[in-house]
Design a protein that fits this description.
The complex is a heterodimer of chains A (about 575) and B (about 425). Helices cover about 30% and strands about 20% of the residues of chain A. Chain A is an alpha/beta fold and about 575 residues long. In chain A, helix 3 (about 95-105) packs across helix 10 (about 430-455) and helix 4 (about 145-160) crosses helix 10. In chain B, the strands form seven sheets. In chain B, strands 1, 2, 5, 6, 7, 8 and 21 form a seven-stranded mixed beta sheet that branches. Chain B has a five-stranded parallel beta sheet with strand order 11-19-13-14-15. Chain B is built from seven helices and 29 strands. In chain B, strand 14 (about 180-190), helix 5 (about 195-205) and strand 15 (about 210-215) form a beta-alpha-beta unit. Chain B is globular and about 60 Å long. Classes of the chains: A alpha/beta (about 575), B alpha/beta (about 425). Chains A and B meet through strand 23, helix 11, helix 14 and strand 28 of A and strand 7, strand 10, helix 3 and strand 12 of B. Strand 28 of chain A pairs antiparallel with strand 12 of chain B, so a sheet runs across the interface.
């Protein structure tokens, strides 16, 4: 069957003449205009489904109701990067971009990573549930499946090298009733074929013993031992720091604004910090990866942002909920179409995360939360663990996933443009897959450079995969903690009572290879303000330490990006 | 690790902890007072308004003055004062309690025969009351704002809106006005203000700051700094009414939406907590864990520092005289008209003076009689001209009439008085 004709037919049936499809060879481009965003997404999905991945979909349909929002751009504009000629420019400081930077730092290369935000990991990489997925629902043959499996296996060693806490706790997928048991036993062959090792079936008693808080109706389960949890931004920061320690340059507050392309080659890249001339560009721009591809004259896919909200619960209630990761199947009579997965996750720090939901949105950076999302998330997961209560909520947050209409990763060299490598469409399980994606991207980058120069890219002889993490003094044995305090008394001054963080650790966070001298940057590195009081006691203390470390007045200390000052001035200042 | 031994360890050096330590010392105990911050005084250090000390000292004092009076009393004794010391571990070893303290000097161990928890309270946060939207700078609890203004001399915003009419919120509305910010209004989800009547008059009315009851903040806007909030009317069940949303431009949202007793250490000691968040305790302020006492805002949130010191002095004295032994606990059974009664029980085995109880009514009431009955016999009838949930009231029961056994039934009722 002609897949293009089929998509045209289906689009016509759904939207009449309002949508047009143009065939561009390896992709199709949808044009026209539709009133609501749901329809714009539906058109893209209809086309992708009919095309069965023979061609990909670029969705350029205009949404009449909501004009495309402009990306948030950094306030700074200077020329610090002007006329620089890095070997590799990585666009995007999420977990994928940072993993690529670290992987490439194994080579003798001039690497520049440009991140438009004030810190790494500020989009999807800090706004997810931190699950290292076993890959239960991934189709064999998809890139998601391939890289999830490869990435999952890399996690133990990688986290050991980077000093990132990782908890390979396993995941229980629970089912209501004994009647599921034959199917579950039968599924073991399937899991083995999928490449999942050690999957077990649990009956009522064993399940109850492992996870006592589950709904009593859930009496059978599959256990996937390869599931785990990791702090996703902790991981990203660690990758960035190790890359920086090995010579990569991380340039924050740096946004790509355009590219000059000729002869199928990116000649220069314009940013708010000047124009660069990289030999090769890596597109790891998350929700903006389609726009970066368009700058490079190489857009053959579109991102349709999908929001997901998670809630974080007080570690006090963790033991009464789950020791690992739990989710259930078949408990819902009213399964909503938007809600596709998620679970109840015990984080590597010992809290509980619940979520996420899934809602299509035209806004790539709308991280706001809504009451309805939280209510849905709790209603859904209470079917697995009835004791789950909104009363224990410490905070909640929204992330925006970056799926393509093909709903698979894009990991390849450009099609029309030769010196770009895409790591795009990376949504869940992107955190799990990131280390493996980075290996492949590094291979593609180095082979491009070898083709260009005719010589293999030399190894970075001084590459050190081991990163020294910031010491968490509260976790040290007494004699080591005592020793640290004797050397530096700041380690004995506790500023955050909920998470027991010392002034010394806050100062450490400001002296790292990728520093971020903001309240939230410190919070993501050493956790003051992460606990139940949400910074009520410690936020002024942390702000003062930042002021003293940076030499800035308190008015110049930001919570997050430029323009987010924690205080606006002195008391009794005359107002304008 | 250096280890030192005490009769009583008091944890928390605010108005409760200092009073408890003094009382324990007066009773002849060897006492250590442990404080996390560099100075004694707790939150009083930042409460520069007056109104403290009327009951305790017979004068109107500011918070720092009240704290300084107590600190002077403490410094004039041989109480060991460990400031800048954080309790990183606490537990029970045989008959004694052990705590590990971390400070600039390193780690040290303390053992004590009894423990008084005077750990105060913390403020409820935006996320705990379900505020949604973005996460900009400029949203903070009233107490944090008070720290910025009164301790650091900095303004957290120029156009401020206060959510919640608790006392700190009212006091900060006035403070910010005096310090040069404009306060656009105080919003309260309940139909009546949450703070003391005198604070509504002195902090809002005197400064023409409007109070909007039955309305709340439903959403916040702004990516970096707060830019605006959406306020909505709420129905009788305190749920926002759709269609009533209005957007108010502001750069600062202060939250005064409730205080939660801090009992992380109590939980580490296995102390059961009551509905109000404080430990379930008897009239001697002893929790259900023998030898562990609780007082001040960690026990129940009070509206006056004087009350805090008073209950704490009792806890300190009882901690000093504590000897292990069986308790005969009889729990008070209040009716639903009481929001909270604290402490919750009487220990019939250790009854010397008339036990004192604090309570809040669940709703605003006019003339009311509180009646206590022991096994059907009325042992107290006390009249109140009015009762309001924000104002804590008290009564004591006659020890002479409290012949308690394990099966005694002690009920508390509120009745409209004519």
């Amino acid at each position: 069957m002609d897949r293009v004709k089929e998509s045209v037919k289906r689009l016509k049936a759904a939207f009449g003449d309002r949508v047009a499809l143009r065939d561009h060879g390896h992709y199709v481009r949808l044009e026209g205009s539709l009133r609501v965003w749901e329809d714009v997404v539906r058109a893209g999905s209809i086309a992708a489904k009919a095309l069965k991945k023979r061609k990909s979909v670029v969705n350029a349909i205009v949404c009449e109701e909501l004009p495309a929002p402009k990306p948030q751009e950094p306030a700074v504009r200077d020329l610090v990067l002007d006329n620089t000629r890095p070997d590799v420019l990585i666009i995007g400081g999420g977990v994928v971009g940072c993993a690529i930077a670290r992987e490439l730092s194994r080579y003798k290369l001039d690497i520049l990573l440009a991140e438009k935000e004030y810190d790494v990991a500020l989009h999807a990489s800090s706004r997810n549930d931190g699950m290292v997925h076993p890959g239960i629902d991934l189709r064999r043959g998809s890139l998601k499946h391939t890289y999830n499996h490869l990435g999952n296996r890399m996690y133990d060693d990688l986290c050991r090298e980077l000093g990132v806490p990782f908890n390979r706790c396993g995941q229980y997928l629970c089912f209501p009733g004994r009647r599921w048991l034959p199917a579950l036993y039968g599924s073991l062959v399937y899991w083995a074929w999928q490449g999942l090792r050690g999957v077990k079936v649990l009956r009522k008693k064993a399940l109850r013993q492992a996870e006592p808080a589950l709904d009593p109706k859930l009496t059978s389960a599959l256990f996937f031992p390869s599931a785990g949890s990791v702090c996703p931004y902790g991981m990203t920061i660690a990758l960035a720091e190790n890359a920086a320690e090995n010579g990569a340059k991380i340039s924050l507050n740096t946004v790509v604004e355009g590219m000059e392309v000729s002869g199928g080659v990116i000649q220069s890249v314009a940013t708010n910090r000047g124009t660069l001339r990289p030999k090769v560009v890596v597109n790891a721009a998350g929700v903006y990866s389609d726009e970066v591809a368009a700058y490079a004259n190489d857009q053959f896919f579109s991102i349709h942002p999908r929001r997901g909200t998670n809630a974080l619960l007080d570690s006090k209630v963790s033991d009464s909920l789950t020791n690992s990761i739990v989710a259930s199947y078949g408990m819902s009579e009213t399964k909503t179409t938007h809600s596709k997965g998620g679970g109840i996750v015990r984080t590597a720090e010992g809290n509980i995360l619940v979520g996420p939901d899934a809602v299509e949105t035209p806004e790539k950076e709308d991280f706001s939360t809504t009451r309805i999302s939280i209510e849905n998330v709790f209603a859904k997961h209470r079917r697995t663990v009835p004791a789950l209560s909104e009363r224990a909520v410490i905070t909640y947050f929204t992330g925006v996933r970056a799926p393509t209409y093909e709903e698979d990763f894009i990991i390849q060299t450009g099609i029309s443009t030769r010196n770009i490598v895409h790591a795009a469409g990376i949504q869940s399980p992107g955190l799990t897959a990131a280390p493996a994606i980075a290996k492949e991207i590094a291979r593609l980058v180095t082979s491009y450079l070898r083709e260009q120069s005719g010589a293999a890219v030399p190894a970075n002889e001084s590459f050190n995969p081991v990163r020294k993490p910031i010491v968490k003094t509260a976790h040290l044995p007494d004699h080591e903690r005592e020793g640290l305090i004797q050397k530096n008394p700041d380690y004995g001054v506790i500023v955050c009572r909920c998470e027991e963080v010392s002034a010394g650790e806050v100062r450490d966070a400001l002296r790292r290879p990728v520093p971020c001298a903001t309240a939230d940057g410190v919070k993501r590195r050493v956790r003051p303000g992460m606990g139940r009081c949400q910074g009520g006691f410690c936020s002024p203390l942390v702000a003062r330490i930042i002021a003293s470390e940076t030499g800035l007045p308190l008015e110049s200390v930001m919570k997050s990006a430029e323009g987010s000052a924690v205080v606006v001035g002195g008391v009794k200042e005359v107002l304008p | 690790m250096i280890s030192s031994h005490y009769d009583v360890a008091v944890i928390g050096g605010g108005p409760a902890g200092m009073a408890a330590a003094l009382a324990a010392r007066e009773a002849g105990s060897k006492v250590i007072l442990i404080e996390r911050e560099a100075r004694l005084g707790g939150v009083l250090k930042q409460c520069v308004h007056d109104g403290f000390g009327l009951l305790r000292f017979g004068e109107r004092l500011t918070g720092p003055e009240y704290a300084y009076r107590y600190e002077t009393l403490v410094r004039n004794t041989d109480i060991t004062v460990a400031t800048g010391s954080f309790v990183t571990r606490i537990g029970q070893d045989g008959g004694a309690f052990t705590a590990a303290l971390v400070s600039r000097d390193g780690l040290r161990a303390v053992t004590a025969k009894s423990v008084v928890l005077a750990t105060g309270c913390r403020e409820r946060t935006a996320k705990q009351i379900g505020i949604h939207g973005t996460r900009p700078a400029g949203i903070l609890t009233a107490g944090t704002a008070q720290y910025y203004v009164n301790i650091l001399g900095k303004l957290p915003g120029k156009r401020c809106l206060v959510l919640g009419s608790g006392d700190i919120g009212l006091i900060m509305a006035r403070r910010l006005t005096l310090e040069g910010a404009s306060v656009l209004g105080v919003y309260e989800a309940k139909p009546t203000p949450g703070g003391l009547t005198r604070n509504v008059a002195q902090c809002l009315d005197d400064y023409d700051i409007p109070l909007y009851t039955s309305s709340t903040v439903t959403r916040v806007f702004g990516r970096n700094r707060l830019e605006a909030v959406e306020v909505s009317a709420v129905d009788a069940a305190m749920r926002p009414v759709p269609g009533t949303e209005t957007v108010v431009e502001c750069d600062c949202l202060l939250l005064s939406v409730g205080l939660i007793p801090e009992n992380e250490l109590a939980e580490k000691l296995g102390v059961p907590l009551g509905a109000g968040g404080g430990p379930v305790s008897d009239h001697n302020c002893m929790t259900l864990a023998d030898g562990v006492f609780s007082c001040g805002n960690a026990l129940h949130v009070s509206d006056l520092a004087d009350y805090v010191s008073e209950s704490a002095a009792l806890a300190g004295a009882r901690a000093a005289s504590y000897r292990p032994g069986k308790r005969t606990l009889v729990f008070l059974q209040p009716d639903e008209r009481f929001q909270i009664v604290s402490p919750q029980a009487i220990d019939g085995s250790r009854l010397t003076d008339d036990p004192v109880f604090f309570f809040r009514s669940a709703t605003e009431k006019g003339r009311t009689t509180v009646r206590a009955e022991l096994d059907g016999k009325v042992i107290l009838e006390k009249r109140y001209s009015q009762l309001r949930p924000p104002e804590m009231e008290r009564f004591s029961l006659p020890a002479g009439q409290l012949a308690l056994t394990a099966s005694s039934k002690l009920t508390l009722r509120m009745e409209d008085a004519v």
